[in-house]
Amino acid sequence: MTQTLYTGRFRTLADEASAPVTGLLVGDDGRIVAVGEADALAAAHPAAARTALDGWAMPGLIEPHGHPGTAAVLCSELVVDLRPVVVPDAEGALAALRRAVAAGGPVFANGWDGLLQRGLPAPDRAWLDELAGEVPIVIVHNSGHSAYFNTAGAALAGLDRHTPDPVGASFGRDARGELDGVALEAGAVERVMAPLLERGRADFPRLFAAHLAELSGLGYTTVADLSWDPALNPVVDALRGSGRLPLRLRWYEMSRPGGAPGRAPSRDASLDPVFRQAGVKTWSDGSPWVGNIATSFPYLDTEATRSIGLEPGHHGRANYSSEELLAIAEPYAAAGWQLACHAHGDLAIASTLDVYEQLIARHGLVDHRFRLEHVGAASPELYARAASLGVTVSVFVDHVRYWGEVLVDGLFGPEHGGAWADAGAAFAAGHRATFHNDGWVTPNEPFRNMAVAETRLTRNGRRMPGGAPVSRADALRAHTANAAWQLFGEQEIGVLEPGRFADFVVVDRDPLTVRAEALAETAVRGTYLAGEQVSGA
């Protein structure tokens, strides 16, 4: 049996107070045999090969709520990148669109954000017709919950005034019933984006391999995709067969009204530790940035809310009633699948918990680990209720970093906006909370997520007026041990201890003791999957 002894400085994260160890012994099956003092392990296993690590090693990072399948296309050269993290102002965004139109051919763009790129016009069909003329153009909002298109873009996608609204989604229409160039929510956005997605599908193996390599270079060893298309499974199999799959993938089927699971789930990790379905994704409401989240409190009347077309006193609403969401979720819950529901507003979160509570009682579910995704407006009371039901949460803390000022000053005020993405309240309620990024919205930046949750500072250095900070240990667990548990992988990954896979990342600083601002700047020196280096020098 070939064994490898890695030596260096390790943060195993097996428990909060553990001292750093200096040796990690890995068997030929890629699992950890022993963790301890390097010289003692070397003496006990003299035949083991030795590899010295330069830096601090910690468990591999886990993205519990990603969309690598979609991000591989939307963040590729096929799409004009308008995200405010790349193009900070309206002038730059408009210039990028004009250049793309001048180049000819269909134009697809991603990242439109009137809240951060102030001064953007209303992107309706009339304006886009003027901008692009006969060139088809489709622009995805930075939230991913809406898209905008011109007349030629509608024709390219096969849309016209007779196109019905998808269930839980809609196309905007003018007074005459004609499409006004706005698609709202996933079903409608997918329809108008279909030509791009078809084009991306043709080159998907290359695009997906490149995106996964990028994620691996950031220290991720496991990534969940919460909008995966099972038709892409052969691409993963091919990458795996050619040795170009540098991380573990967990995927979630997208639920549809009237849908049903194709098979029953299995929790047997030995079936496939690299690629398997984890659960089913549902949606309760939309995005705070487009005004369609279900809240008990109104949006403010400000320049920001007026810029996205909201009337004074506006309240968003859920995509589905509780009864409709229950009907969608029922077949999957009855079959034993984990449910993961997008819910931002407090009313949407409460409604989803109502549905979960009924499903849990009706089917006698115990270790279901139903999930709530994003939970922007969750209160301590809602976190407590979720915990009492065994429901787990994944928090989008990067909303604080990029939209903190907008949330407080522009949308909801200090009481509701200031406590947005309150990860501290989640941990206080007893959650094994996780953090995440939506891959085509904000950069994948796990260490910065941890720092933001710890400080609640925006990128402009402003501290949010509400919400509770998290401890460093909890911040680290959010992208490691907690994420492994949330994905039913706690026997395989998440901490460095005997029996688990040797998935680890080597970084340039001690992640447990550096200051928060230094943690945010952590550099990855190497990523290891089952004891094999898959990225880094």
Choose one word for the global shape. Answer: globular
- How much β-strand is present in the residues? 15-25%
Distance between the termini: 27 Å
Main beta sheet: 8 strands, parallel
What is the tally of helical segments? 18
Structural class per helix/strand content? alpha/beta
Query: Mean pLDDT, nearest integer?
Result: 94
Note poorly predicted spans.
none
The largest beta-sheet arranges its strands as 5-12-13-14-15-16-17-18
**Percentage of residues in helical conformation:** 25-40%
**How many strands in all?**
21
Please compute the radius of gyration using only Cα atoms: 23 Å
Folded structure, characterized:
The chain is of the alpha/beta class and about 525 residues long. It contains 18 helices and 21 strands. The strands form three sheets. An eight-stranded parallel sheet has the order 5-12-13-14-15-16-17-18. A hairpin with a 4-residue loop joins β8 and β9.
